[in-house]
Amino acid sequence: MTTPRLHWVSEGQGPAVVLSHALGCDISMWDGVAAVLARRYTVLRYDHRGHGQSEAPPGPYTIDMLADDAAGLIQTHAKGPVHFVGLSLGGMTAQALAARHPELVKSITIANSASWYDEAARAMWQARVDTVLANGVAAIADGAMQRWFTPAFREDAAGGGAQRVAALRTRLELTDAAAYAASCVAVANIDFRASNPGIKCPALVIGGTLDEATPVAMSQAIAESIPGAQLRTLDAAHLSAVEQAGSFSSLLESFWGELKQPG
Asked: In terms of CATH, what superfamily is 8-117+191-258?
């Protein structure tokens, strides 16, 4: 298997942090969080295969592939193990990375994510795949915005929320349809119920109280499956790191500060 060329950027200096974005997004999803963290950390953001400016190899994709992509990036561009932060698809990548490459992570943060899907949910994912392959990614953009953001954030022109929503919608619609569909299949097939109990590194799980895509119950299940994991919540929808970038960053810095060997 050939590793695709991944687009990445690095900012700041200090202990290394890697930020892994949600399905249909790119590194810009992390703009607010990265601006805060780069004051004290080296922040490396990257686009998943098939997203943003990274290569889009033909499918099928699996979460193990995405975890191995992240591992290669860490091995090449980070000095030693990192604090790995993933949201949604990125949170699934974090769970797989910690199980497959434990030597590369000091800690993981899993935000607005899931650890497995039942048959009904997998059927929902297949329906989305069929829609995207037939009609393009734009066909699912309205529904994505409703899941990603609260109505208040979508309508907040004065505070910049509406502009962020518009920019991320454009990014979603530009995503290669075949790569997006392959990523949906990877998501639908996750099952970390056997591997999460073996994760040894510190773990923070963040849920959104207004997240209808991955409700807090899913975050609770992840936290309960990883020994010693902490669960925190934000009053946000699915893209909590966009909607509440400051509060999200504060949760990260508090979590890392509590570790026995911070940084």
From this structure: Alpha/Beta hydrolase fold, catalytic domain (3.40.50.1820)
Mean pLDDT for the chain overall: 97
| Inter-residue contact 127 to 181 (CB < 8 Å) | no
Cβ atoms of residues 203 and 232 within 8 Å? no
| CA gap 125, 148 in Å, rounded | 16
Q: How confident is the model at residue 263 (pLDDT cuts 50, 70, 90)?
A: very low
Burial pattern 164-173, b for ≥16 Cβ within 10 A else e, equals bbeebbebbe
Q: Which residues have a Cβ under 8 Å from the Cβ of 228 and sit 6 or more positions away?
A: 202, 203
Tell me: the pLDDT tens digits for 116-169? 999 999 999 999 999 999 999 999 999 999 999 999 999 999 999 999 999 999
Strand order of the β-sheet with 8-11 is 8-11, 42-46, 16-20, 82-87, 105-111, 203-208, 230-234
Q: Residue 36 is encoded by which pair of tokens?
A: 């805060």
Q: For 254, how many CA atoms within 13 A lie in the half-sphere containing its CB?
A: 12
As a whole number of Å, the CA-based R_g of the chain is 17
Find residue 83's DSSP bridge partners.
17, 107
Answering whether pTM is above 0.90, one says yes
What is the distance between the terminal CA atoms of the chain, rounded to a whole angstrom?
Answer: 33
